[in-house]
């Protein structure tokens, strides 16, 4: 099955590593829209757990289009090595500040 290949910046790789090694527990994935909005408005996840930091993976419009079709995103480092694969559950537009 094909997927979108997303090259991660160093900061994005650092965030992914923290997600994968449990440092962001109880958060273990990029936030969905409900959690994201709840964190922005209440500093809590949608389930009520205190969480101050929105964790998202930003995509360009072209990447969003591809991701909607493939439903998978392969995350790669700057040397094109696959470091993770995501199953797309939700795409949403970030609120403007």
Task: Give a written overview of the molecule.
- Pfam families: PUA_2.
- Residues 8-94 form the ATP-sulfurylase PUA-like domain.
- Keywords: Transferase.
- GO terms for molecular function: sulfate adenylyltransferase (ATP) activity.
- It is globular and about 35 Å long.
- The chain is 32% helix and 15% strand.
- It is an alpha+beta fold and 97 residues long.
- The mean pLDDT is 94.
- The protein has a 3-stranded mixed sheet.
- It has one domain (4-87): Sulfate adenylyltransferase, CATH 3.10.400.
Brief sketch in words of this structure:
By secondary structure, the protein is an alpha+beta fold.
Classify the beta-strand content into a percent band.
15-25%
- What overall form do the CA principal axes indicate? globular
CATH evolutionary superfamily: Sulfate adenylyltransferase
Number of strands: 3
CATH class categorisation: Alpha Beta
Describe the biggest sheet? 3 strands, mixed
Q: Helicity level, as a percent range?
A: 25-40%
CATH fold title: Sulfate adenylyltransferase
- Report Rg: 14 Å
Mean pLDDT: 94
Protein name: PUA-like domain-containing protein
InterPro entries: ATP-Sase_PUA-like_dom (IPR025980), PUA-like_sf (IPR015947), Sulf_AdTrans/APS_kinase (IPR050512)
Keywords: Transferase
GO biological process, one term: sulfate assimilation via adenylyl sulfate reduction
């Amino acid at each position: 099955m094909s997927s979108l290949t997303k090259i991660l910046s160093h900061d994005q790789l650092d965030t992914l590593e923290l997600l994968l090694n449990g440092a962001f527990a109880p958060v273990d994935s990029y936030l969905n829209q409900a959690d994201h909005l709840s964190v922005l408005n209440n500093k809590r996840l949608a389930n009520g757990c205190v969480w101050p930091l929105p964790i998202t993976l930003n995509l360009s419009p072209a990447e969003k289009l591809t991701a909607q079709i493939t439903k998978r995103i392969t995350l790669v480092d700057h040397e094109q090595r696959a470091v993770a694969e995501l199953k797309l559950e939700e795409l949403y537009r970030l609120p403007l500040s």
